[in-house]
Specification:
Blueprint lengths: L17 H17 L3 H11 L5 H8 L5 H40 L18 H14 L4 E2 L5 E3 H4 L27 E3 L5 H9 L4 E10 L11 E12 L3 H16 L4 E8 L2 E10 L23 E10 L1 H6 L7 E9 H9 L5 H4 L3 H6 L6
Parallel strand pairs: 1-4
Antiparallel strand pairs: 2-3, 4-5, 5-9, 6-7, 7-8, 8-9
Helix pairs in contact: 1-2, 1-4, 2-4
This protein binds phenylalanine.
The site of phenylalanine has 11 residues, from strand 8 and strand 9.
């Protein structure tokens, strides 16, 4: 039967001798000293303090000692381990401080270096104004809809009740993409998005469509061949001209402050009745009319500014999109963004809006907000 070996001489148990413990401490110290990164120190720690380190193995030997020798050995090992731990902690502080110093040196910012002088970009005033107008509708729960700029002739014209002999459909007004047999045009207005929205969506439909449109126009101070419109379409039960008027008044007030709109009878094939919408002059509020002493540049002393077209959606358009016209009706409107920017922000020449001179954008920066 084997029991504790009472004749066991603790000093003979090599790992527990004072010398070998001192050696372990010395080795650990020099390993820590040699480690000059946090990673290397971590490695040294696992070799000299962790489970399989000499000091840990020595600790296990205690169990093999006769009871009377254990206390002594335990104290010696504990002291040695304490020394190793203290050495580690001291070195850890040094290494961390050194690494921090290195990082700080490497990431130092030289405030005397020349900076990049490229200016920060910003949305073009047209884009900013278009977003601003769309936001008025988003706030009322409308959706923003978009359509392609190269549009099917059917969607741009036929579905909107423009006959094939309508003058706007000629090549003098409309830009056709070749080959002509494909019947694709650069959309001449945003109204085809009305059709797309009605075909794509469940009723009721409340959409605004801001976007680029194209016409074979002159390029002068009041015409550019590529310009922007915002279209609105609402189709729901019981919609009337009164809703249209209320909506336009709301848009006008959001954009120009305390102003009214008025409607003048007009004609569009896709609305019936149709109207031109005018905006009460937000500068003189009509005070300049017949008053040569106080002329108004914004409305040219007319008191009203032409803004866009609108009307009750022609039932033929609704029917072309499969809408039951006995149940549903709607209104639509559309206005030019360039025109709106002209009188809202006092831009006098449309060419400035396309020429890309940054001074123009800078001048109107924030104005479209
Ligand atoms: N699409 C018309 C235009 O470009 C404007 C308009 C839109 C008129 C909606 C009525 C209803 O002139």
């Amino acid at each position: 039967m084997s029991g504790p070996n009472t004749n066991y001489d603790p000093v003979e148990v090599a790992p527990l001798s004072a010398e070998s413990l001192a050696e372990m401490v010395a080795e650990a110290r020099s390993a820590f000293a040699a480690a000059d990164t946090v990673a290397a120190l971590k490695q040294a720690r696992s070799e000299h303090l962790a489970e399989r380190s000499p000091i840990a193995l020595a600790n296990r030997e205690i169990g093999a000692l006769p009871p009377q020798a254990r206390k002594d050995a335990g104290q010696r090992i504990g002291a040695a381990r304490g020394e190793i731990q203290a050495a580690f902690a001291a070195r850890q502080e040094e290494v961390a401080a050194a690494e921090l110093a290195l990082t700080l040196a490497a990431e130092q910012v030289d405030v005397t270096l020349p900076v990049s002088r490229r200016p920060v970009g910003a949305p073009h005033p047209i884009t900013a104004l278009m977003d601003l107008m769309a936001d008025v509708f988003v706030a009322m729960g409308w959706e923003v809809a978009e359509g392609p700029e190269a549009e099917g002739e059917w969607l741009n014209f036929d579905a909107l009740n423009l006959d094939s002999d309508h003058p706007a459909r000629g090549t003098t007004d409309t830009l056709f993409l070749s080959p002509l047999e494909r019947h694709v045009v650069l959309r001449t207005h945003t109204s085809p998005v009305q059709i797309r929205s009605l075909l794509d969506r469940e009723l009721p439909v409340y959409v605004v469509c801001p976007g680029k449109v194209f016409r074979a126009d002159e390029f002068d101070s009041t015409h550019v061949p590529v310009f922007h419109q915002i279209e609105g379409l609402c189709v729901d039960k019981g919609i009337s001209m009164a809703h249209l008027k209320g909506t336009l008044d709301h848009l006008a007030r959001q954009m120009f402050g305390d102003v009214r709109t008025r409607m003048r009878p007009s004609y569009f094939p896709f609305t019936e009745p149709s109207a031109e919408v005018d905006l009460e002059c937000f500068v003189c509020h009509g005070a300049s009319v017949g008053n040569p002493d106080a002329p108004c540049r914004t409305c040219r002393s007319e008191g009203w500014i032409e803004w866009g077209g609108c009307g009750v959606v022609n039932p033929r358009v609704l029917a072309a999109c499969g809408v039951d016209t006995a149940v549903y009706s709607g209104f639509a409107f559309g206005m030019g963004i360039e025109r709106t920017l002209m009188f809202r922000n006092n831009a006098t020449d449309m060419r400035d809006m396309v020429e890309g001179d940054i001074r123009f954008s800078r001048q109107l920066k924030g104005a479209a907000r």
